[in-house]
Amino acid sequence: MAPKYQSIADSLRLEIENGLYSSKQLLPTEQLLCQRFQISRQTVRRALSLLEEEGLIIRRQGSGSRLRERVEPEPMLNCTVAVVTTYINDYIFPGILQGMETILTANSSAPLLFATRNQISVERKILQTLLTIKDLDGVLMEGSKTALPNPNLDLYQKLIDQGVRLVFINGTYPQLADIPSVLADNSGGGRMLVEYLHGKGHEHIAGIFKSDDMQGPLRYAGYVEALRDLELPLEDGRICWYNTETRGSFQSEAFLDSLLSGFAGCSAIVCYNDEVAIRVVSHLKKRGVGIPQEMAVVSFDNSQYSELAPVRITSLSHGSQNLGELAADLMLGLLRGEERPSVVVPWVLMEKESS
């Protein structure tokens, strides 16, 4: 035979399921329940505790017991979302894409995958293809060369006019400022790395930045603002700019020799990302330069490159947040008709042996 408190809990649970009580209505008091069931207050409390453990009611001392408001699960979306990134298999993109796919497929949304190779011409062809896809609901978009004027804005606008929802990741365009985005705090990251190096005693800090993607100028902005505010020397000759087309230069021994000779007198380097940093660290080690004793190297993204380098690289991380997951969640909210603001993800410093 079930304990008395169990049978009381069963009776109350059945009444709750039959809609006898509303979420705004208090359940009968302990005293009334004692009288109704002819039981002790202790037995009533055990029954109510059981219902509370099941998540059916909320008990507050002095206020009685009421139903816990049930949060209805969000409806599953059955929609088509295109995912357009600059690369697919390179660098940090597998993790971002996996995050997007996880969120989208969990909501019965079929992702279509495209890569631009950070080429404006390829991006245009992809956007033209997207305009022909029937029932396309949304596009998760990493624009190409987002630091430069983009001739494809006309096609973005056509997608918007067709009712397709857009979410940008890693970059935006001033002409489409109303489109929500998921971005890292790149300016804040540049400042964070300089302040960190200054705290380690470095005063002459070189920098390597990418010029044609929005992240590069923003990381540079934080870097130079921190140098200024800390009254550290800023010399143009100690700043290297590269772009998508010259990205492969970092595999050249001659290029790296020339680059590092220009950094003479510096004791630290801020790199645009881990892909650049691992090349710099490997070259320094090959030339017998002590890291970090003679040259500290810090970077962005905390990717696998930061772990695989000859000296593990101090790098900024997004912590537990995945930009792909955040972008996909933002898109699903828009498709449900919700108002969703842009998301700016802070950096977390992961200190390792390179600094």
Give a description of the structure.
The relative contact order is 0.11. It is built from twelve helices and 14 strands. Strands 4-3-5-6-7-13 form a six-stranded parallel beta sheet, sandwiched between helices. Strands 9-8-10-11-12-14 form a six-stranded mixed beta sheet, sandwiched between helices. Helix 1 crosses helix 3, helix 2 packs across helix 3 (41-53) and helix 7 packs parallel to helix 8 (215-229). The protein is elongated. It is an alpha/beta fold.
Q: Helicity, in percent?
A: 25-40%
- Give me the Rg, rounded: 28 Å
Give the end-to-end Cα distance, rounded to a whole number of Å. Answer: 69 Å
Whole-number average pLDDT?
Answer: 92
**Major sheet:** 6 strands, parallel
Secondary-structure-based class equals alpha/beta
What is the tally of beta strands? Answer: 14
Number of helices: 12
Strand content: 15-25%
Q: Please provide the ordered H/E string of secondary-structure elements.
A: HHHEEEHEHEHEEHEHEHEHEHEHEE
Ranges where pLDDT stays below 50 over 5 or more residues in a row are none
Protein topology:
Layout: H1 4-17, H2 30-37, H3 41-53, E1 57-60, E2 64-67, E3 80-85, H4 93-106, E4 110-115, H5 120-130, E5 138-141, H6 153-161, E6 165-169, E7 181-184, H7 186-199, E8 205-210, H8 215-229, E9 239-242, H9 253-262, E10 268-271, H10 274-286, E11 296-300, H11 304-308, E12 314-317, H12 323-335, E13 343-345, E14 348-350
Parallel strand pairs: 3-4, 3-5, 5-6, 6-7, 7-13, 8-9, 8-10, 10-11, 11-12
Antiparallel strand pairs: 1-2, 12-14
